[in-house]
Amino acid sequence: MEKKKGISYKWLALITVSIGTYMSTLDASIVNISFPRLTKVFNTEPSIVLWVSVAYLLVSVSLVFVFGKIGDFFGRKKIYTLGFAIFTLGLILCTLSQSITQLILSRVVQAIGAAMTVALGTAIVTAAFPPQERGKALGISGATVSAGLLSGPVLGGVLVDLFNWQAIFYVTIPVALAGMAMAIVCLKEQKVSEDKFSFDWGGAATLSSGLACLLLFFNLGGKDGFSKPVAVAFGVMALVLVIIFVIIERKATHPVLDLKLFRNRLFAAGNISLLIMFIALSANMLLMPFYLIEGLEYSASQAGLLFASVSITALVIGPISGWLSDKIGYRLLCTVGIALMSGGLFWLSRLGTDATLVDILPRLVMMGIGSGLFSSPNNSSIMGSVTWEKLTTGSAMIATVRQVGMSSGIAIAGALFTSRQAVHLAQLSTENPIASDLNRMALIAGYQDTLLIAAIVCAFAIFSSFSRGNARPQVEKPSFEVEK
Question: Which residues contact 73 (CB under 8 A, 6 or more apart)?
């Protein structure tokens, strides 16, 4: 009689990492909805409250590569579990905060924990699954990103309305504790190096500082203008630090980021395509709510439900495309997916002042299908292009590119939209100065122009995606047992 087996290790690892991925993306998206409430509660300016989000972003992005490399030396499970613990501690501290300064510092603690889990999560999943199932696994894991981004604003709005601002933090503490317990019990240790700990401190410092300056450049530039002295200063510092980082990494024995990986066509094309996709997609993420609420006069709840169709569609398509990529390779799915997204952005840019639900919904669904088709195979191709020893580099690279792409895309789209809206308002005022809805018409025209530019930008990713080839490389067999 055949002995029954329990849940295999690979699925336990996937469930554990998916909880961590969901928590980090949920936490990044749930806080913004509480900004108006926080401004009143702490009697402070919106520009100060904004640092609740900015501080989290700066710290989490700048430390991802650092913790990825540390995990290679001390063990991925050890650092991942510690990250869960620090993240949970940050949640508790947020609920206890009595001032905006305490809340921002608590978010920094959260960000440190999130950087640990994000840096190592994809590497742990990739190592747990055989190469022929990697796309399926990363498709499911990637779907949790869409779930977190989708549920964050909706859940946050409900919690803030029914309870208080602390609710957005304390309701997630039990989930975080459950994820930490699973990490302790279920995950197997993955230790890449048994050598004496050697760390590229110079590379880590310049990379972390450079990424922080780059994000500040986009955040401040998008808000006040990229020509402002402060924004220019951060942009110049980011450029200088990146140049120094490249010089250091070319000589480092154990580099934080092995620049030789970019000679691999799959790795380079996958990350370039991912960056372009998030830059373009961020324009729609930022401006669609304005178009629906202020342009078409939808209620906030109606706009939220309608916009959620993108994430819901991606949530369904992502695991399917990941499974297909295991069968037919990456290039076709990624190229078709990014082409659909580019076409979807162009189609959305044609929406006017009299658009109906029937006009809007198919366009958003098209965006969701494109995102689902592209993301899972693209992530799988990046992780499949690196060796076992470099899995954390691939994992950290995906997380960093995603955050940098979204931050820069939102800042650039916001600046473009503001500029084009002002141009159209001036033109409409000259043509028909007594019209009652000039602001609404200018807003819609600015939305159309910005999304058209986003569609053109996204189209460049079609070429970079197609250039990756259709190989399905194998990750070297790990040094730990895959099945329990």
Answer: 191, 192, 193, 197, 198, 199
Q: What's the number of domains the chain is made of? A: 3
Q: Compute the distance between CA of residue 137 and CA of residue 14 in angstroms, rounded to an integer.
A: 7
Please tell me the total number of residues recorded for the chain in this structure. Answer: 484
Report the pLDDT averaged over residues 339-366: 91
Global pTM? 0.82
Residues 175 and 292 placed together within one structural domain of the fold: no
- Whether residue 467 has pLDDT greater than 90: no
Helices (H), 7-50: 9-30, 35-41, 46-49
Q: Position 261: which residue type?
A: L
Nearest to 179 by CA among 144, 209, 128: 144
Task: Tell me the pLDDT tens digit for each residue of 234-292.
Answer: 999 999 999 999 999 888 877 888 888 888 888 899 999 999 999 998 888 878 878 88
Residue 32 belongs to domain with CATH number: 1.20.1250.20
| Residue 10 in tokens | 């690979």
Q: What is the pLDDT of residue 300?
A: 66
Q: Which domain holds residue 220?
A: 200-253
Within the chain, what is the greatest distance between any pair of CA atoms? Answer: 85
Residues 53 and 158 in one domain: yes
